Amino acid sequence: MKLYDYILSPSCYKVRLLAALTGTQLTLRPVDFHPGGEHLSPALLALNPAGSIPILEDGELVLTESSAMLVYIAAKAAPEWLGSGDPAESAQIQQWLSFSHRLTASLGGARLVEMLLRPGDLAALQASGVKALRELEAALAVQRMKGDIFLTGSKPTVADIACFPYVALAPDGSIALDPYPSIRLWLRAVRALDGFIEMPGIHRLHELKPEPAKETA
Amino acid sequence: MSDPMIDEWYPVALFSKLDAAGRDTLLMGHPIHVARTGSERVAATEADGRSLPVRIRYGHVWTSLGEPKKELFDIPEADEPGRRLVDVGVVRVRCSPLRAVENFLDIAHFPFVHTDILGAEPHTEVEKYDVEIREKEDEVWATKVKFFQPQAAKSAAGGITTDYMYRVPAPTCSVLYKTCPPRPGEWDVITLFVQPLTEELCDVWPWMALYDDEADMTDLIHFQQMIFLQDRSILENQIPRRLPLDPGMEIPTRADMTSVAYRRWLKRHNYTYGAQLVAQ
User: Fold this and answer.
1) Which residue among A30, A115, A201 places its CB closest to the CB of B219?
2) Which of A47, A217, B155, B167 would be a feasible disulfide site paired with B175, CB 3.0-4.6 Å?
């Protein structure tokens, strides 16, 4: 599988992250998104007329939506990431995959304005981002009261991976996560997953590593 | 404004990406406009139409709000044949421009912020190194810096002990020289050029001149963006927001000698844009 990738793109990172968590091998093809604007080059527009990254190629299959890539990788390598198959749960996972696009548009948009100086109405993007975060906080608080840590149950699914990166990077768009305790606990739960990989701005949990003294002994 | 930083040169645009429509930006709180006026020509103007001096150097457009007393600092290595010149691209950071430079000068954070790339536990010790303010050049230099790195550069295959030299030739610019894995004996040049938008907001323009014939240009850009973006979230959370020039609540350790010299040099020149002067 070949991923057209950008190291700073949270949408590309979703795919890299699920691949790492499921032991799926990816061949990375870096795209010079910033400052080069290579995603708008004729070669990449031919592959994805929408002009977005990531793009995932597997043989004849070309996917241009990150949620579709997550579903594909999970179905191939680790179906448990698609949930138990219970109709309500499956529908909820789809619901969160759709919700993740709101996070991309709002939190991701604010991040591009604030960090890479892309054009956009920062105040409006931040306001819609905060609205989405409040919905997520409410849903995760309900999950906690049920004793579940992830979006649809006690185990993570593609829904968590789809929503995780833009939320974790909200501060890049000057949106603080301090008011959302359930979101912060959920972020920590994702970062604590076996096989978790980081991206710039999302650090690993150092405190969970073995103590250095024990490592050398 | 009596701050002598007004007479310094600052990066305000990536030359290769600047077009005739140009770019509206801020320099030390003043709105300015930078635009291309010819194939090798650019213009920078203030809001009232006053033209500002410009230079095109190291991939970037440089200007000054005041009257620069010195030419833009020299990086002799930039003109050496065979080096790949890498325009890394702008990143905005909500921090003091001086904080951005200070972080660039620090080695001790590598294992914790750039884990498994520029550093790794348990190799956290910063060995003794030399720091001086070179009077003739009027620059801060740190030399004989050594650090163990799992992946020092895009071109590094495994862990190596990397040699570093740091140089501060202007209050918001730093040049770093480090071991060049494909060419032992030569130094790779990695710079951090910081444009002060306000005292607590800056545009950072990293730039590199490397000996690396193998790596794809996009890989080189992404490697450096990855490193810098790992720093960004830390920089945006530093307290106090402005860089303290007087000893106060912070207690430097031996590893912070470069930072101490940088602050001393800033204070000596009264370079205070982005600095906190009264200890809290």
Assistant:
1) A30
2) B167
